[in-house]
Amino acid sequence: MPGTYLPSNYLPVFIFLVVAIAFGLGALLIGAIFRIRRPYKEKLMPYESGIDPVGEPRVRFSIRFYIIAMLFVVFDVEAIFLYPWAVVFDKIGLYAFVEMVIFIFILLVGYLYAWKKEAFTWE
Amino acid sequence: MDITIIKPILPEIVMAALACVVLILELFIHKKETIGVFAILAVAAVSYVIPQSFGSAFNGMFISDGYSVFFKFIFFINLILAVLISIRYLKIERSEFGEYYSLMMFATLGMMIMASATDLIVLYLGLELMALSTYILAGFIRHDRRSNEAALKYFFLGAFSSAILLYGITMIYALTGTTNILAIASQLQGKMTTQLILAIVFLVVAFGFKIALAPFHMWTPDVYEGAPTSITAFMSVGPKAAAFAALGRVFTTGLIDFAPDWRGILIALSILTMAVGNILAIQQSNIKRMLAYSSIAHAGYAVIGVIAGGAEGLSAMMNYLFIYAFMNIGAFAVVIMLRVEGVKGEELEHYRGLAKTHPLAAVLMLIFMFSLTGIPPTGGFIGKFYLFKAAVGAGYAWLAVVAVVFSVISAYFYLRVVMYMYMHEPEGEPAALATSTPLGLALLITTIMVIVLGVYPSPFLAFARLAIG
Amino acid sequence: MVEFFFGFFAIMILFCSVMVVMSRNAIHSVLWMLVMFFHVAGVYLMLNAEFLAATQIIVYAGAILVLFLFVIMLLNLREEMNIEQLIDGWPAGLSLAVAMLVVLILALGSFSVKPWGQWSIEVVEKTTQTKALGKVLYTEYLLPFEIASLVLLVAIIGAVVLAKKKLKS
Q1: Do B125 and C147 touch (CB under 8 A)?
Q2: Residue B13: partners with Cβ closer than 8 Å, 6 or more residues away
Q3: CA angle, B446 then B449 then B452, to 5°
């Protein structure tokens, strides 16, 4: 019957998660409760080796990060497709092997294209 | 499993392989025109493979029948003409990269998959492939702000409509337990539920977005205006025809029992689309925006074919899209000719006195404008005639009358271009036109086809009728 | 017990989604989205889809969210910028959304539970979901799988064409 399945195997994972969150939050909360609060202007300024801060704190972000992240997403999804295939590889025979080779080959064309276009070089 | 099982999908496989080859060629070839020529040869190769490809494949997920083959020919014509008009245009826009041709081939591949899909998931993936390629192509002129804006708007609204399509597919799956379009009808057994109405509405919204049916047309003017003109020409025919193919198949095969319900929705949308397209085009001064609204209106006419239904209506819709491909790309080809270095050439003002400075271009534009209006003896008239004939035959004579009224209204803005060209004096010095051999070839093909389809349409009409079977 | 967990996940997903849209700081939006992804993975676990739950975290939280963060850092939004939270026509948008919600709730009455197909929970539990997915994806659903690879290829082309600073010709 739908709606009655409870993944009891994951109870340890759940407990682990709860304890981890409790640890993190607890550390922050206890610190926040028991801290002395005596702020003054010089204490709150950003640290720059003792001198007064000069200039803008923001650095011009380069677009290389975006391309790398975008390519990572695509190849991550490719890797995800490889997991179930690897698990059932012995059951589905030669044709599944050929299919996966085609899949990887198509993405290999993309990889070669990105390589030649210098998407991977970090000038 | 022997090798003949992939025969129905052989054209798509060849197209995918050749698109990858074009992509690799781009890395090594420096003269980008040759890549364009190679793309056209690739289309020739794919169309060579098509006659052997009839049949169903992959457990009924993919079918190659007359219906899909007819649409594939529309897509090939669209690709060839768009490549021909792009070759010089890209140089002028300083965006001459070979990925352009590869992306157009991938977009065409997506359209081919959409036309042949008999499974909703394959349909969705074909739509995504086509849409993603077109988003990138719309933003291809990277240094132009309007191109970036066009790509952004198209992407946002397109992604949203894809999500709505998926929601509709999910509901149909929940209702029937299958995503196969042919099996949906037998699973639903004619029982109408609210969930089904919701699913139909979501499907109509998603396809309506791609067809640019009002009120889902808001993206069209901005995207058509900002995108490179050759891509506007490509987009105005290809994705629209592919979405019509998908709409026709899903609604007249899968949801055939519920025709009274979705017909009502489509009738209302068709009237609204014709109204919005024709009335809002009147006040446009940018010719690309005007042609965008005109293509919205043409989608409104073509939906009448789906509403009429049956072999008559669907073949009329297919015939209309075939004719529309030639006249629309022809009109955009003339618009591209006016784009020279430093002059955008998109405003109506630039067409002043074109008959005196460049008489041949003016005559060509005249033919295309007449055809878009639907004046005999051009192809546009024949297309509309058979659409209205199908509508009257199915009992929707009043809808045909409404469409005729809107066609008459459309004459105002189409013939206004003709008036500017022939009855006004040219201002300033006449700038040379950006002609090239491929562009000339494209104009020759489109002009000949528009006139031939106007005086001798019967072989093409018979082909469309035969394709429905 | 099941209802409790499902209710918790569902309410958290809704709450996080609303916070994604309503946060002033863009980085906060992305972090709320991260919390939402973890709860979606929890819902997948409740449906006995552990592979999908893992994929959700690896791909969505691990790759796509990183992409979002990079784009937001690229935009370099000043926190002092006073962007209006709601657009001018917000009553129209809100009433449309509420109308759609009402329609969906009314349609909910006609949703009926169908009998299980071939892959019921017990069958999927016996062969793990990864194996079940693999068995079906690479035999029956081969065509969508191969088309997906083409979509990924187009995504690679798009990333390079649109984002590379100086596109080498």
Answers
A1: yes
A2: B6
A3: 150
Q: Nearest Cα to B12, choosing from C23, A68, C143?
A: C143
Chain C CB within 8 Å of residue B142 CB: yes
3-state SS, residue A57: coil
Please write the tens of the pLDDT for every residue from B128-144.
999 999 999 999 999 88
* Coil, strand or helix at A48: coil
Residue from A11, A117, A121 whose CB has the most chain C CBs within 10 Å, to mutate: A117
Which of C50, C149, C165 best tests the A interface by mutation, with the highest count of A CBs <10 A? C149
The label of the residue with tokens 């992407």 reads: B155
* Closest Cα in chain B to C148: B125
Q: How many CB atoms lie within 10 A of CB B251?
A: 23
Q: Residues for chain A: how many in total?
A: 123
A–C interface: beta-carbon pairs under 8 A: 144
Task: Tell me the whole-structure pTM to 2 decimals.
Answer: 0.93
Would the CB atoms of B24 and A117 count as touching at under 8 Å? no
Question: Could you write out the DSSP letters of every residue in chain C?
Answer: -HHHHHHHHHHHHHHHHHHHHH-SSHHHHHHHHHHHHHHHHHHHHHTT-HHHHHHIIIIIIIIIHHHHHHHHHHHT--TT----SS-TTHHHHHHHHHHHHHHHHHHHTT--PPPP-SS-HHHHHHS-HHHHHHHHHTTTTHHHHHHHHHHHHHHHHHHHHHH-SS---
Question: Tokens 């392989």 belong to which residue?
Answer: B17
Residue B439 CB coordination number (10 Å): 22
| The predicted structure's pLDDT at residue A114 | 92
Q: Is the pLDDT reported for residue C79 higher than 70?
A: no
pLDDT digits 0-9 by tens, B3-44: 667 888 999 999 999 999 999 998 888 888 889 999 999 999
Confidence (pLDDT) at C62:
92
Q: Compute chain C's Rg from CA coordinates.
A: 21
Handedness of CA B363, B367, B373, B376 (dihedral sign): positive
Cβ distance of C157 and B99 shorter than 8 Å: yes
Q: Which two tokens stand for residue B340?
A: 């020279």
Biggest alpha carbon distance in chain C?
Answer: 61
Q: Does A113 touch chain C (CB under 8 A)?
A: yes
DSSP B189-223: TT---HHHHHHHHHHHHHHHHHHT-TTS-THHHHH
Contacts of B140 in chain C (CB under 8 A): 161
Interface test with chain C among B9, B100, B128, B201, by most C beta carbons within 10 Å:
B128
Q: How many CB pairs under 8 A join A and B?
A: 14
| Tens digit of each residue's pLDDT (9 = 90 or more) over B58-95 | 888 999 988 999 999 999 999 999 999 999 888 888 88
pLDDT confidence of residue C146 = 93
In angstroms, rounded to a whole number, what is the distance separating the alpha carbons of residues B273 and B314?
19
Q: Please give the CATH superfamily to which domain A8-116 belongs.
A: NADH:ubiquinone/plastoquinone oxidoreductase, chain 3 (1.20.58.1610)
* pLDDT > 80? residue A38: yes
Q: Which of A95, A106, A113 sits opposite B27 (nearest CB)?
A: A113
Question: pLDDT per residue over B362-404, tens digit each?
Answer: 999 999 999 999 888 888 899 999 999 999 998 899 999 999 9
Q: Would you call B343 helix, strand, or coil by DSSP?
A: strand
Q: Is C46 on the interface with A (CB under 8 A)?
A: yes
Confidence of residue A51 (pLDDT cuts 50, 70, 90): confident
Rounded Cα gap, residues B310 and B252, in angstroms: 8
How far are the Cα atoms of A69, B145, B432 from residue C76, in angstroms, in the given order? Answer: 17, 19, 44
Yes or no: say if B236 and B293 are a contact pair by the CB < 8 Å rule: no
Q: What pLDDT, in 10s, does the model give residues B432-462?
A: 787 888 888 999 999 999 988 888 888 888 8
Which residues is B180 bridged to in the sheet? B119
